[in-house]
Design goal:
The chain is mainly alpha-helical and 165 residues long. The chain is built from six helices and four strands, in the order ααββαβαβαα. The chain has two domains: 109 residues, no CATH class; 34 residues, no CATH class. A hairpin with a 5-residue loop joins strand 1 and strand 2. The chain is rod-shaped and about 100 Å long. The two termini are 46 Å apart. The model has no long low-confidence stretch (mean pLDDT 80).
């Protein structure tokens, strides 16, 4: 026995619907690079602030150095990308072992000795320095915050708005 089939429901898009969808897609395509650039800047800024907080928590204080200034300023790393740069001495503070630094006569004005003179009230002949591990903990916290920042970013919101969720 053969069953007859008929059209139960026919869906044909209206011309206005097609135009509206095309306009939304065009807006998304033109705004996407600007939104991606803004999101990457905001994400880098959030990561830098988290690393700053981690450095302060590890006992690193702001004293005439570039560490906190560089963490607070995202650097353009590509067309729509930004990054956070850590100065070399910030990495040394994180990784070095405890050691003694002796004062040499040819090192009169390095920051460590200027700090010692101001904080300790004199110039010791040598000083024991210790590490301040801060980068790994800061990056771990930054990953969580960056994920949240990305999910609330302009690119995701505009895509959700286009899809209708």
């Amino acid at each position: 026995m053969a069953y007859r089939t008929g059209i139960v429901l026919r869906v044909s898009p209206d011309k206005n619907d097609i135009v509206r969808i095309r306009d939304k897609l065009n807006r998304l395509v033109t705004n996407l690079p600007r939104s991606a650039k803004r999101d990457s800047y905001n994400i880098a800024k959030k990561a830098g602030r988290t690393l700053q907080f981690s450095a302060r928590s590890a006992g690193i204080r702001k004293w005439r150095g570039l560490l906190f200034n560089m963490l607070n300023r995202p650097v353009k790393a590509g067309e729509n990308a930004y990054s956070v740069q850590i100065p070399e001495y910030g990495i040394y503070l994180d990784e070095m072992g405890e050691h003694v630094v002796s004062r040499l006569p040819r090192q009169p004005n390095i920051n460590l000795w200027m700090w010692a003179e101001k904080k300790m009230g004199g110039m010791p002949p040598y000083m024991r320095v210790h590490p301040h591990p801060w980068i790994s903990k800061g990056l771990e916290n930054a990953r969580r915050k960056v994920r949240r920042e990305f999910m609330n970013g302009h690119v995701v919101r505009s895509t959700k708005k286009l899809v209708g969720r």
